[in-house]
Structure formats: structure tokens, C-alpha cells
Amino acid sequence: MKLKLIFTWIAVTFGLLFFISAVSIRSSAIKGTVSPAAAASEVLAWSGADTLRASPVNGVFSIKNVKAGSYTVLIVAVPPYKNVEKAGVNVMEEEQTDLGEIKLTK
Fold first, then answer.
1. Residue 90: pLDDT band with limits 50, 70, 90
2. Closest CA to 37 of 72, 65, 75, 64
3. 53 in Cβ contact with 63 (< 8 Å)
4. Distance of CA 9 to CAs 21, 71, 80, Å?
5. Which of 8, 65, 92, 99 is the most buried (most CB within 10 A)?
6. pTM of this prediction?
7. What is the pLDDT of residue 13?
8. CA torsion angle for 75, 78, 83, 87 (degrees, to 10)?
């Protein structure tokens, strides 16, 4: 009887740990790529007073733990390239919003 109780406790514990890890993995994000890859120094996203930042690596960026809502995204360019701003970027709960490739111009 005690052995059955121990196995039940272990199964419940592992099930709970699996559920918690699965829930924590699912978070909203804004992602994309910048080309040319070395042309951007930073990516900002803001909605109201909430401002988030990411640094592109090889032109790829991902802003994680984004709350659902509408954001403005600014790609901060390295001169002689020009900044790019995208308004109305909608982020849904537990979704990855992909902006695709953002081309910076001189």
C-alpha cells in the first residue's frame, strides 16, 4: 500500500513539474530579422509606459515576455543606415509575432 502511494506521489509530482515547465515556455514575443545584419544596434518595442529592448545577433532579434497588446517597434540603425519604425504591431497572448525581414536603407 505504501509503495502504491509513493508511486502515485511521484507521478503527480512529475506531472505538475511538466505542466509548470510547459506553461512557462509559452510566452508572447516579437521577433524578426534585420538586413543588412550589421546595420542595427538595438530593437525597441513600446506600448504605453512599457518599453522592451533586444540586441540583434547576426541580424536576428527576439523580444521576449511581451504582454498582449499593440506595440510600436523601432529598429535603431547604425549610420549611415536609417531607423525603421513599425506602428500597430499586434501581439496576442502566448503568440510569437514575426515581423519577417526588415530592410534598412541608407
1. very high
2. 75
3. yes
4. 18, 44, 62
5. 99
6. 0.75
7. 56
8. 0
